[in-house]
Amino acid sequence: MSRYDLLAPLLACPACGGPLDVVGAGAACRGCGLQFPVIGGLAWLFVEPQAALADWRGRLRLLEQHLEREAALHRAGLSLAGLHPLTRLRLEAQAGALEAHSRLVQALLEPLGLTGREERHEVHLALGTRLPLSQGLTNYYANLHRDWAWGDQENAASLAEVLAVLAPGGAPSRLLVLGAGGGRLAYDLHQSLPLEVTLALDFNPLLATVGQRVSAGEKLDLFEFPIAPRSLAEHGLRRTLAAPAPSRPGLEFVLGDALAAPFADGTFDAVLTPWFVDIVPDDLPALMARINRLIAPGGRWVFFGSLAWADRPPERCYSLEELLALAPAAGFEAGPPRETPLPYMRSPASRHARIEAVVSFAARKVAEVERPAPPVRPDWLERTDLPVPALPAFREQSLSTRVYAFIMAMIDGKRSIRDMARLMEEQRLMTSADAEPAIQGFLARMHEDAQRRANF
User: Fold this and answer.
1) N or C: which end of the chain has fewer CB within 10 A?
2) Residue 451: predicted pLDDT
3) Rounded-to-integer distance, Cα 427 and Cα 432, Å
4) DSSP secondary-structure letter at 334?
5) Does residue 96 sit in helix, strand or coil?
6) For domain 141-365, which architecture applies?
7) CA proximity to 142, closest of 341, 309, 304, 352
């Protein structure tokens, strides 16, 4: 029996909302015919599953190349004269840890089908990806170690807060965790409550793969690279990730986009959003309406986390008071919020840690609301056979790109900045007097960026 045999009654097509039929090792929408694969035991329930797979393959390739470059950077440091023996020991150990970590991640995500593919790092950087660019494979990677390797202090504290706001309404039967990450909170709730089914949804295949396999009782080795290591030996630690015990039946992990959640309306008695609403790009009123449609009448939305809004205009950075005031328009009656100081990301191997004033509350669904309209994309983006319009923004970017390419093409190891400025004037792009400091500043930024080590 496949995963879809168990999940199919709860699922709906994320593209059209139609019911899904189990087909071999995947599913197909009865309405629009879209097919969804199972890869590495995980259901890929994205609106465009093949595009999502291509995106994550690209992100995996970027991560592999990043780890290769980091290991090479550490090994290059070994050639410097006058290194202290302890410095040499640290560089050698961390280079080995980075290389071993790359092999472990590649093995873990081998089902993505990257083996033998030769995408170039520069191509992925240039073209980007369709999923949120701020989300790489290792965003929230440290959470995997928090969930399954550091001990239970943070996990137990989080569980206690969620149970406290759930208690007045009794235990739900069907729970959805949106943005479940590595899945420890979903696992702990499933083990603690008489839940019939707990679905943990995330769009990151590394987090979901680890969560699925570890919660089922498997032990996995991955490396932790602490922000502020306590000792030389803790710069790269191989840790074993393991659950306290295999989860009981009913806990399932699926891959998908929470803003196009692949579930039928009214499927869940409770939807939990842990550290979630201030991360996703959807505006809060629209997001609350999406959550509403997933919940059965009388069911609950459980909020848990902070309100640290990022990458959005000021009017969309809501206070707790605003959130609670907006809840009735989204069909919710919010209970009293709790605000509790909790430890956050306290690795035993790092000097870096935080205390967060974490907010939690349960809001009961008291009314249905209109489903938010999905974002509408122009026809030329939907249909690859239509001409792409020469929009002003495209023309401006095209000119900027040509200037960028022209400057980079002038770098041949022989020309000086002054020589390049003269060529800029010959091409009637800028006077040489203006071009010289401009090129100097441009190349200074390029040089500084090259010295920074990317955070994947």
Assistant:
1) N
2) 66
3) 10
4) E
5) helix
6) 3-Layer(aba) Sandwich (3.40)
7) 352
E strand or H helix that includes residue 200: strand 197-202
Helix (H, G, I), strand (E, B) or coil at 347: coil
Distance CA 45, CA 238 (A): 32
Instruction: Compute CA 399 distance to the chain's CA centroid, rounded to the nearest angstrom.
Output: 33
Angle subtended at Cα 173 by Cα 278 and Cα 7, rounded to the nearest 5 degrees:
80
Tokens of 411: 């770098």
CA 188-172-308 angle, 5° bins: 60
Show me where the domains of the chain are located: 1-35, 50-127, 141-365, 395-451
pLDDT for position 107: 94
Rounded CA-CA distance 240/436 in Å is 55
pLDDT digits over 236-269, tens only? Answer: 999 999 999 999 999 999 999 999 999 999 999 9
Residue among 219, 213, 221, 182 nearest 103 (CA): 221
41-56 residues labelled b (16+ CB within 10 A) or e (exposed):
ebbbbbbebeebbebb
Residue 283 has phi, psi (to 5 degrees) of: -70, 145
CA angle (71, 75, 81) in 5-degree steps: 155
Write the CA distances from 424 to 168, 400, 437, 443, integer angstroms: 71, 14, 12, 15
- pTM of the shown model: 0.84
Q: How far apart are CA 259 and CA 45, in angstroms?
A: 12
Are β-strands 354-365 and 332-334 bridged in parallel, bridged antiparallel, or unpaired? antiparallel
